[in-house]
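RECORD TYPE: inverse folding
INPUT: structure tokens
STRUCTURE:
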């Protein structure tokens, strides 16, 4: 008779009956299910009592593969039984079963599903990415857009670059994970390639940017205790007001973003703040606390703050101050690095060499998450076995993808391309500014990391988010950072024609759409007029 297969019901179904019923159910074959019963009796067509047995089977499949079977049935045309299988106490709806089957869903259905089932920790532009190629995005309805965010500069090489995908596929068919408990044959090649490219002796692999920052902080603190001989638990890290280094607890403890810190305390101690670009303030902090300061963490260009570029000579002055006070200079190049600003690193604009560099985002070309911390041996070897690590850090799949991603940058001249096209794009945007000087306060950027800073008074009651919605309607996808700043950072593979198209779209939105928005939106007090940092009191943005 076989085993009993029924995890829920107190009335078990013998395996033979289960198999007989399954083979007699017309949709079972359509779903592609094959059952082998201990009984050799051939199934009869619609044997007596088959409806009753099918109903019993449906009840007993509630927990055992209900959604899975419904998905398979829906894919093969058994929509009626798929919906029936999806019904039941505590289970998903018929619509959810069809979703699980991968049926074609509209953008609105997908956005509604995400709102219902996912945490509301983002405020996305209402567009659904379905396919990407180069600088282009298609939504489920086939509408085409130009991407001007690049997943926060993670897809500098362009969406789904064929060389990166080839490396992914080839490695995925061989080996995806070893953990660092063993060696694998791809990570050493990645480590050699990365350190040689950027001129450092060693690297430590991680996965996400925030992990990279946390790793750098731990590494620099360890150096402070072992090499600088800072008293136990007294090491300090200095960071900049307006910085963004990630969302983990250790990282937000340096943040001036009230949204990132409110309600998440107590924050991690051991941090001091200084205004970005203020060398006099930094020197004072170093003089007052230098014996306990192990590192200064900064972004060469502040991305989330609104593409804020420091004064000329700032990075060189920071390098001199750090060297003079025996403090490690830690560059967060997660968003600015790997050709984004028209240099391989944004620090290269002033030809300075930080002691520690953090890379991420475009290191994986938007295909897999990869991050890394670069430093020389006297710093890196302060970390000993068992003191830091990651199961997935340095995995062979990510290592192969990272090497391919870096080769694309060099082989396709993306550094030079970003520098040239970035200047052309800013020239175009400045012409738009000349048409709307009362609305656009400033166009700024380096390479293809740019921002348009809008006047809050001229926009009101609209916001930069509203402008981005209208840009989306004109085929350009951008995202605001704060109420009045729009960041424009397309893939570095973008064409000059697409940049011109985006500039025209921006101009058209300000000319035609903004006046209508201002009539439609109810006037409220803008957050941009009010916000100041809870921690340092600094006016924000």
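DESIGNED SEQUENCE:
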């Amino acid at each position: 008779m076989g085993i009993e297969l029924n995890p829920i019901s107190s009335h078990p179904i013998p395996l033979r009956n289960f198999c007989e019923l399954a083979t007699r159910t017309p949709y079972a074959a359509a779903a592609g299910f094959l059952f082998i019963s201990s009984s050799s009796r051939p199934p009869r067509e619609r044997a007596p009592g088959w409806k009753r047995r099918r109903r019993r089977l449906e009840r007993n499949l509630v927990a055992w593969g209900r959604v899975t079977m419904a998905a398979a049935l829906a894919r093969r045309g058994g929509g009626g039984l798929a919906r029936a299988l999806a019904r039941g106490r505590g289970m998903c709806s018929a619509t959810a079963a069809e979703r699980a089957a991968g049926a074609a869903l509209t953008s609105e259905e997908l956005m509604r599903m995400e709102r219902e089932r996912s945490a509301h920790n983002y405020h996305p532009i209402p567009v659904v990415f379905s396919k990407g190629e180069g600088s282009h995005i298609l939504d489920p309805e086939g509408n085409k857009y130009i991407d001007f965010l690049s997943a926060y500069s993670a897809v500098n090489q362009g969406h789904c670059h064929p060389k990166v995908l080839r490396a992914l596929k080839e490695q995925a068919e061989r080996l995806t994970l070893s953990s660092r408990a063993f060696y694998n044959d791809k990570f050493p090649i990645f480590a050699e390639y990365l350190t040689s490219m950027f001129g450092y002796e060693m690297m430590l692999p991680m996965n996400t940017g925030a992990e990279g920052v946390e790793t750098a902080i731990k590494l620099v603190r360890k150096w402070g205790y072992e090499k600088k001989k800072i008293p136990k638990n007294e090491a300090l890290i200095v960071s900049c007001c307006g910085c963004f280094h990630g969302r983990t607890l250790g990282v937000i403890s340096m943040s001036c973003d009230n949204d990132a810190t409110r309600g998440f305390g107590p924050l991690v101690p051991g941090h001091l703040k200084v205004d970005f670009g203020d060398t006099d303030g930094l020197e004072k902090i170093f003089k007052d606390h230098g014996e306990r300061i192990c590192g200064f963490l900064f972004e060469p260009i502040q991305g989330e703050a609104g593409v804020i570029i420091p004064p000329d000579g700032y990075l060189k002055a920071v390098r001199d101050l750090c060297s003079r006070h025996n403090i490690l200079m830690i560059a967060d190049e997660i968003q600015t690095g790997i050709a984004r600003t028209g240099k391989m690193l944004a620090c290269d604009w002033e030809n300075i060499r930080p002691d520690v560099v953090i890379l991420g985002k475009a290191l994986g070309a938007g295909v897999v998450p990869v991050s890394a911390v670069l430093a020389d041996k006297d710093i890196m070897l302060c970390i000993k076995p068992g003191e830091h690590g990651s199961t997935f850090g340095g995995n062979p799949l990510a290592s192969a993808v990272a090497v391919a991603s870096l080769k694309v940058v060099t082989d396709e001249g993306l550094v030079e391309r970003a520098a040239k096209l970035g200047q052309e794009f800013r020239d175009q945007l400045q012409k738009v500014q000349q048409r709307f000087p009362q609305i656009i306060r400033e166009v700024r950027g380096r390479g293809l990391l740019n921002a348009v800073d809008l006047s809050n008074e001229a926009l009101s009651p609209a916001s930069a988010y509203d402008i981005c919605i209208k840009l989306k309607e004109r085929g350009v996808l951008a995202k605001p950072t704060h109420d009045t700043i729009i960041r424009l950072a397309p893939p570095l593979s973008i064409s000059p024609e697409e940049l011109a198209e985006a500039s025209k779209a921006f101009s058209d939105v300000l000319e035609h759409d903004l006046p209508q928005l201002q009539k439609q939106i109810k006037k409220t007090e803008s957050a941009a007029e009010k916000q100041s940092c809870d921690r340092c009191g600094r006016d924000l943005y």
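NOTES: Residues 1-44, 61-70, 72-92, 525-529 have pLDDT under 50 and may be disordered.
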